[in-house]
Amino acid sequence: MTPQELRALCLSFNAVVEDFPFNPETSVFKVLGKLFALTNLDARPLKVNLKCDPEDAIRLRTDHPGLIAPGYHMNKRHWNTVTVDGELPDRLVRELVEDSYDLVVAGLPRADRLRLDRP
Question: Which tens digits make up the pLDDT trace of 22-51?
Answer without folding.
Answer: 999 999 999 999 999 999 999 999 999 999
